[in-house]
Sequence to fold (263 residues):
Amino acid sequence: MALTAVRYMLRSLELSAEEIGLNCADMKIKLPLVATSDTQDQMLRLSAKAHWSRNEVSITIFSVNSTTEKISDHASCAVKITQAPASLLMQEWKRIGYLVRARIQSLQRGVEDGHCHKLRRGLAYRLFSSLVEYSSNYQGMQEVILDTDEFEACAQVVFQTADNGFEWNPCWIDSLGHIAGFIMNGNDNVHSKDYVFVNHGWSDIRCAKKMEHGKTYQTYNKMHPDDDKGTTYSGDTYILEDGAVVAVFGGVKVYCPRVPLAV
Fold:
């Protein structure tokens, strides 16, 4: 939604959004939008305020009632506009790409020696289903390799639906980002009945290539504790196409609302 709004604003100024880098940054998720079971309409709005002097657009997302009065704040972020072409991003990520590929290869070797778990799509999302049930269009992870001790995993991702007219289909974004939540909620070192980790936002999302339906992507993430209580973890999700890093979801944060129970 944020990227769609900013691209529209740029086109209205006769600027080519395709030649300008957009970074969806500082995402803070306050309250998820939950669909109601009745037939009453739920209205969601996005407000975008441009700060052209610093190449940034502030975004807020909220619900309104039938009289357009705000009833809930859901999220806020900032879309940062850069002049750096995709080629510069790809060059920057090339310097760390070999490290990411090495960690993926290590996880793959871990399957052979029994140190890592390998799960196919059906089982991976069945584990997720104790927390949330994803429809088939959202189930993009075809295979997951998980090292529970290191809170580290990689996945093969194939989009289950076309772009359907979206600037960036939410089903695609979710499928690429699932790995962070799976590391925490599919981890046998974390007791799911005592802990539930939910997405709390991220620091930035940068993408150097347009995602495409029909391609196979690889994702990698290693989560780290952000506090002494073990209630918040964060990590960077790297997205690879043909072995090259093409996008990064930086500082993805997951949060457990309840304090862990003492062992």
